[in-house]
Amino acid sequence: MMKFERYEWIAIAIMISLFIFVGFIQGWSVSLVILNMCIISAIMTMGVNISWGYAGVINFGVMGFLAMGGLAAVIVSYPPIREAWQVGGAGLGISLILLAMLVFAIMYINKVIVKKSSRYWINGIIIFLGIIIIRHFYLNATANIEDVNPALAGFLGGLGLPIIFSWFVGGLFAAGVAFVIGKVALGLRSDYLAIVTLGISEIVVSVLKHEEWLSRGVKNVIGLKRPVPYEIDLQNADWFINLITYLNSSKLNNVIDTNDKQELLNNLIIDGSGIFVKLSYAILFLIVMLIIFYFANKAQLSPWGRMMRAIRDNETAANAMGKDVVKQHLIIFVIGAAIVGVAGAMLVTLDGLFTPSGYRPLRFTFIIWIMVIVGGSGNNLGAIFGGFVIWFAWIEAAPLTTFIINQLTLGLEPTNALKVHLLDSVPYFRYLFMGLILLLILRYRPKGIIPERVRHS
Amino acid sequence: MIDFLNSIIVLLNFIIIPGLSYGSQLALGALGVTFVYAILRFANFAHGEIMSFGAMITILLTWFFQSQNINLGILPTALLALPIGIIATIILCLISDKFVFQYYRYQKSVPVVLAMVSIGVMFVINAIIRIIIGTETIKFSDGQKFIMKAKQFKVMTGLNEGLALKSSQVITIFITIVLLSFTFWFLQKTKTGKSMRAFSDNEDLALLSGINPDRVVLITWMIVGVLACVAGSLYGLDKSYKPIIYLNLVLPVFASAIVGGIGNPFGAVVGGYVIAFSEIMITYAYKKFFVYILPGPLEPSGLVQLLSTDYKFAVSFTILVIVLLIRPSGIFKGRVL
Prior knowledge:
Number of helices of chain A: 19
Order of helices and strands of chain B: HHHHEHEHHHHHHHH
Structural class of chain B: mainly alpha
Largest interface: A-B, 44 and 45 residues
Distance between the termini of chain A: 16 Å
CATH architecture of the largest domain in chain A: Orthogonal Bundle
Order of helices and strands of chain A: HHHHHHHHHHHHHHHHHHH
Number of helices of chain B: 13
Strand content of chain A: under 5%
Helix content of chain A: over 70%
Strand order of the largest sheet of chain B: 1-2
Number of domains of chain B: 1
Radius of gyration of chain B: 21 Å
CATH class of the largest domain in chain A: Mainly Alpha
Largest sheet of chain A: none
Oligomer: heterodimer
Shape of chain A: globular
Low-confidence stretches of chain B: none
Mean pLDDT of chain A: 88
Low-confidence stretches of chain A: none
CATH architecture of chain B: Orthogonal Bundle
């Protein structure tokens, strides 16, 4: 196990004390909500950090991989809709087989025909014809599926398994998409890779938005099963009531009147059940985060990690030493994307709903990158720290801004136009903070708050 | 014969005219991106927000002029506000260069760091725009809306299909032609333009020949400011202004610049039109066109649409990926990626 430096312990202490502080000021429920999102953000950040920090492979497709993870959560946990399978399953199967045939045909043509210009023409014609034929089966099937009880279903549903499996499946989904993207786009110079991955992630999200048979599209999937107990079940469970009574025995003993005592107990149970649920999520997430952290560190310290650093620092030299740069880039891109996919599935698990239109690049790609840069690329603890601190700032920016604006405009009337306008635009100040934090860090601490440790071993 | 004319009018009305005006907006945007790339050597993610900022200033001034009852008659008032919007956008570009980009240029940072920095600038400008003008959709075109309405055209020619011509489309195409000819004249004929091309081609050699890099950078940001503000305002005038759209617009703009060959101004313009036309042509339902042009029994029953309009956005990126695979330096040879 790795040893932490002194400043790294300070960083950990800061992270913990932030939550205790919020717990006392705004209540433990708020603190736990922020903590859960912080842990998920930290996992996303570690995923990006593995490809960018270890090997210098840029990945601006975070949003797309998160959405794939979310899709996995739906497909794994939603109960199957048999009727939809009956009316559309065959058509979808045929179009899938035809699609596979099309791909093989193109691969065959690329192998047989050597002349470049004629190859492009033949490929173009075959793809055009293929799309027309496939569309015929596909559109019929999807239209049938979407007609099945459109208000409640209208899609294929899932497998009906416990949602916790989807965390693994989400990683696989994202890895699959990343493999295709990597095959196509890796090898481009880094800023082009950034633009291409950003664009492809937009394509992934627009597919999820509009292919209703698969993901229910903009109609959203709600009511996904939880891996933790529901509040209402807890409130009626004897062991939970006993636990709350035991924990608050001193408080309850101070109340003499039985009616008051019962009311206080009820309130405590309602509060406690909410906190218990959030705490269970936090523990589950924390376990996943620590597992990923452990293996990420192991990988970084291994010979493989050393090779990755060599490739990052001098690609030509690494290539000359016989390292297969293209292959290693693909591997690390896929691993990073898979971790982001896990985080995506966890995100949907936490929310209990899947909203494809909620995936926006500003929130789900650029903020994650700010976390990576601020935390310190190449250092896993830095990635976690970045995820925690930036998400914390993102959430707490609004109350802070309100406070500052109120202080600055203390002399103005409450109906003053400027004051009202500023207070109305409080939600937008967080973008300003994020931009300023990124610019300041890049200027004055370009390696991040917890920089990568230079090892001489 | 009449059917043939009708089908041509359908294409003109739904593909060619919208494609030309959208393509012009993309071309102006892509030209700005390409300038930054050629001279300053980084991918500027903040370009969409710079466009949005220019449009915002133009809108604010338009409101001011409207409140003072100043207008241009049949032309939109926004044209009067545009020059001041351009100046404001140039100032924004120069400020962001002075306080942010300049430092990294002197440090000779790698392009990807500058791209990250531009993301920071993007966030800041984005926030400023939202704080000032909010996130609502704003329509600010006034004056005469149509040069020719579909009905007028039908009465005039006696055809079944109408041809509508919005004044914003004509203004867009006209301004684009003027601005592009000026830019290319500037690059090819003036001494400053030549020095910029030399700087883009080989920085060290240009420095040795006594070209002042700070001056080249200054002129570049000024041109970028003009192009961005005009592109942003025209887009807002033609469709409607909504801050969030410009973040999405930056991707087709990048796609145009790269498809045409990044760093190559002519390529950026062609790329803009290529992206715009392919977006529209691939997602357009050709049923009406085929009904006119084909004899009765062959008429199609479906919409004859290659992809649903939902995927408009995906088209530009698919084209970008295909171009990068087949010809990595773009249609017109830009820098090799």
